[in-house]
Amino acid sequence: MTSATLRGRAWKLLEMVTTPLLPSDYLDLVSPLRAGADLRGRIEAVHPETGDASTVVIRPGRGWRGHTAGQYLRIGVDVDGRRLWRAYSITSPTDRRDGRLTITVKAVPDGKVSNHLVRRAAPGTLVQLEQATGDFVLPQAKPAKVLYLTAGSGITPVMGMLRDTDFADVVLVHCAPRPRDVIFRDELHGLAANGRLRLTEVHTGTDGRLDVARLDELVPDWAERETWACGPAGLLDAAEEHWAAHGVRELLHTERFRPATVVTGEGGEVTFSATGRTVDADGATPLLDVGEEAGVLMPSGCRMGICFGCVTPLKAGAVRDLRTGEITEAEPGVLIQTCVSAAAGPCDIER
Amino acid sequence: MTAIDPTAHLTAEQIEELGRELDAIRDEVIADRGEQDAAYIRKVISAQRKLELASRGVLLFSLFPPAWLIGTAGLSVAKIMDNMEIGHNVLHGQWDWMRDPKIHSTTWEWDHVSPSDQWKHSHNELHHTYTNVIGKDNDLGYGIMRVDEDQKWQPFHLGQPLWNLVNACFFEYGIAAYDLELGKNLGKRRRKDPEFRARARAVGRKIRKQVLKDYVIHPLLSGPSFLPTLAATFTANLVRNVWSHSVIMCGHFPEGVQVFERRSIDGETRGQWYLRQMMGSANISGSRAMHFMTGNLSHQIEHHLFPDLPSNRYAEVAVKVRALFEKYELEYVTGPLPKQVFSAWRKVVRLSLPNRKPKVRASKRGQEVLAA
Ligand code: FES
């Protein structure tokens, strides 16, 4: 018998010992970061960067497969008892000696997770992680000349790259309202002082928003540079247009942070994605009725919100709880009770 | 269905107003649910796991009587926690709002021979929607007992104190059979129904795993303590079964609790639904430890009004609910466990015999129940 089958048998036996729980349910009590556990991390420290941004140091579980500079990860944080998932760029270099990783988070107004991480997260807290992902990364072959174009927290994936890889000729154009809003300002100036980076700060609070056409003056050879841009949609749209207009679109790589806001309203177009049906719903009809009307097979029970026999994944959009008026927005893993929820804008129900 | 309707003094408007006041109580808790509640259930789950692990560890040495006693007591408590404060409440969706897939009504499985999903159907859906409606809520006497004067007496009922005792000892099996609607489904045609067979197989699998774990694997692991460990697990299961059966009997059986006719719920309004839950449930009074060990089903009235509120909130909700009972001059049935258990048992025994004074209304309704 190979050791793998032996281990398989031992595990089966262990499952018989712990049924109906799994061995991991007990192991998680003592060793939540062990190999083989669901991927988690432990927050070890939170360092303020600016007035509203902090770097969170996380010790990932043994299952962490590492990242490539420029990638992001999705992190599940319990805020007010409720697990919420967000994506943040990784700001630590890939070869950090202690195996920790960092994300740098800017608190956005009304941002539940960002404000929690920046202001309240305590060392010792467990968070859920997913493996790093994203293709906003550097190519295998080093480009001779590089331009980074960033604004606000758009600096975070680029900081991951700067800390990870040296280039002979790098220019960074970074926009922030005021000098003190520039995340990693000291470190960036340090790199510039050592000659490893040519840095241009644009202070939008005093100079106004960056007009991409100004690049001709700030970085005269911009069109020869392989460029990575990250920031608000307005900046990236303008950059894409500008690069395309000059016929160098393929030199530009952009990373968009998904806007967190979902448009909500009364009723909307409901998609039952598993069945492939789409219907219009008003803001007062339970989605259970809407689905049944449309001939979709909907699980149900009490039809009054008490039995949880109708819970169904909400894949996109938002719904309103007809009893409390509370809005629930789609996030991975979010389930809703269709008998007491109505469409609050377009939404996608996995049935 | 009692001769005197204890809600007769309420007008239709009052009943709807009562419903709105109860909705407000619910909304308040929902708006306030948060970190502390989540921390509470996590703590309880982790304590239960540690207690079970420790007790099973001690039972490895159950050849020594003190170890047997401590291990058996610990395992009994762990099993009760698993079924009551954790399993029952998680399966009600009370903690779904946390969005933790590990503590969720769709993924939870409990130390019980009835698989979670089958139990959720018969309990959450049938019992909680049709609470105490004769012919629709099979929890009333589990289909084997007569629980109201208005039900027709049959010689079969003479044995019901005995059924009830047996049911108490093997409660989890009773529940599994009940969730399968075994009585109804053993008819020749139904037995072949593929959907029923699939469910029966699921129960079979669950029973096999549970039995293997409790009566084979753990005793074997104990080596020379094989037999004492076997006895200990059997005892723990017995204790857990009798305990949950007692607590659950207290929820709807004691004197003073109302049952309802099938037709009385046609076109029921929200307020009337609430009122039925209020009149159809009974509480157990006692210490915080008592509430904890009953999985807060000692707050059965509050649980039936708000089955999806986190159980740790029922105590504070109870104060407000009780005030509403007073305001609307309704009887809040509650009492200490021994009193309620005694009351429920007395009813079981009394109703095992034919009614002493035949009531005119009773016989009429009795036929209705039969026809149902
Ligand atoms: S059908 Fe019972 S909660 Fe929706």
From TrEMBL, chain A:
Domain 2Fe-2S ferredoxin-type stretches? 268-351
Keywords on record: 2Fe-2S, FAD, Flavoprotein, Iron, Iron-sulfur, Metal-binding, Oxidoreductase
The cross-references to CDD domains, in alphabetical order and at most eight, read: fer2 (cd00207), FNR_iron_sulfur_binding_2 (cd06216)
Cofactor(s), by name? FAD
Q: Which residues form the FAD-binding FR-type domain?
A: 36-139
According to the record, the segments passing through the membrane are none
Which SUPFAM superfamilies does the record match to this protein?
A: 2Fe-2S ferredoxin-like (SSF54292), Ferredoxin reductase-like, C-terminal NADP-linked domain (SSF52343), Riboflavin synthase domain-like (SSF63380)
Its recorded name reads NADPH oxidoreductase
Organism equals Kitasatospora terrestris
From TrEMBL, chain B:
Q: What is this protein called?
A: Acyl-CoA desaturase
Which CDD domains did the record assign?
A: Delta6-FADS-like
Fatty acid desaturase domain segment(s): 67-334
Ranges annotated as spanning the membrane? none
Organism annotation: Kitasatospora terrestris
Matching InterPro entries: FA_desaturase_dom, Fatty_acid_desaturase
